Amino acid sequence: MGLVNIGLSGVLANRVALNTTAQNTANVNTPGYSRQIVNFDATSSGNFVNGMNLGAGVEVNGILRIAEQSTTNRLREATESSQYTQTYYSGLSSLENLLGADGLSLTQGLNQFFAAIDEASVAPESLAFRQQVLTNADALTQQFNSIYSQLNQQEAAQSERYSAVIMDVNSQLESIAKLNQKLQEDALLGKNVAGLQDAMDKHLNELATSVDIQVIYMESGGVEVSTPNGQPLVIGGFSGSLARDLSNGDPYSTDLTLSFQSMTSSVDASLGGELGAMERLKQLQFEPIKATLNDLALGFAGGVNSVLNAGFDLNGSVGRDLFTYTGGSEAASLAIDSTLSAQHLAFSSDPSVAGNGDTLKSLSQLSQTTLSNGSVVGQTPYSAYSGLLGQIGIFTRQAESEASAAQISLEDAQVVRDSLSAVNSDEEAANMMLYLNAYEANMKVISTANQMFQTLLQAF
């Protein structure tokens, strides 16, 4: 019966190989699937003839998942970098479009305001020219208000996205912890864990789109995951949970806490991924831009009010403020004094000569007068805003270049990973023929053994 057993071992082993090849072929278009190969070992004992060991056939020693840790890590790191740079570039593009949008550009509003000032200098006592100054001043305040409002809307939308990404991160961490447990259980039972390992890599890649992570692989195929500075996210079957920390009073705060087991601590690492890019947008773009707009509104409005306070209106009364605002939110609250009428504009330097218009000259000169407050110190109203636009443009072009480079790196990393681990249809077709021929040959061995046995029986 040795010949039968040898043939049967070949049939069973090659049937496993055929099934494995079929599994590979079925998943040729499955993202993240790692091809598998069967590892054969010759069975060298168990069949003795005339004292000689002829072997006992073949056995499947295991099914190997073709994957290399370095290529897997490279793909995950490239995924994180690509998502980070793309998110940052997208955010900058939106800001650039907002600040340069027709109808919102402060340059246009300043032009119209100072043009009205220059026109009023022709006939300072004219109520029509004075009303035009009020109208254009009001339009300028609304532009400040609109820009600041839309900045807040963009930041609010980003904040909502930030919360959604945090929820997704926590879900991924839970899934990775559960996979750790399943991998350990199946590995102890001797089961094929290739599919679970593919699932693990998929979850890690998806997690990397949201946050930069450090990964340590365990012998079971499970992982330990931490933040870049070592704060634990997943250990064994336990996962951490991220939460927003709004204790500073900022509803759009990107501060985070990490709870792991019974411990809660602040996340003090640069997060990377989509979360890191949104944090960077808030800290390096939204907050500075809003601060610059507030400083510009304060400096401009304060300058105009100061000039008017030194003049006299058509009634010979001391000049009043044209602009009002709330400290700390100047751009958002900037408005013209609703109780102020055209005749209250203090365009004269002499209370007895309402139409001398000397104050208008000082108002016109404000267009080229440098401001002295906050982030706009040393700049004119025009240069402060154009500088803001220019800076955003430079940052956007740089971010675009970084995003393009990161995308190329991601594509290269994917090619390297796929060249090793992805399924090749031609290779699998050749393997299918190889294993099928071996399967049929071993069936022939069994058939031959049966014929020999029948011949032997007929001899008696």
From TrEMBL:
UniProt-annotated location(s): Bacterial flagellum; Secreted
GO function terms (MF aspect): structural molecule activity
Ranges for domain Flagellar basal-body/hook protein C-terminal: 421-458
Species assigned in the record: Vibrio qingdaonensis
The protein's name: Flagellar hook-associated protein 1
SUPFAM superfamilies for the chain: Phase 1 flagellin
NCBIfam families: flgK_ends (TIGR02492)
Pfam family, one: Flg_bbr_C
Keywords per UniProt: Bacterial flagellum, Cell projection, Cilium, Flagellum, Secreted
